[in-house]
Input
Amino acid sequence: QVQLVESGGGLVQPGGSLRLSCAASGFTLDYYAIGWFRQAPGKEREGVSCISSSEGVTYYADSVKGRFTISRDNAKNTVYLQMNSLKPEDTAVYYCAVPIATIPISGPLLPADFGSWGQGTQVTVSS
Output
């Protein structure tokens, strides 16, 4: 069974850092791009970042560019999202997902183009 599990969320002060993990089971991540999304209360799910399957091509939403870094470790079947200089507006549940069709890594990321969503991990940025 294809499954993605996010972890690494928590409560952090503004300016702090967190590293989120997206671990895959039931399939090998090597051949798949992975997208990170977030959803704040009362808001639509927003595409944050994406990494291609092999060339390491990445995409970042303008709201996180320069602060977040996506990477992958295929040996561990895991994709990471390093989040630095966190702001209160980064507060949301963060999800990873696999594209269900060929998508341009250049973005923007549309939730409808992704599937196999994980359960999400809560990130709260507050003093």
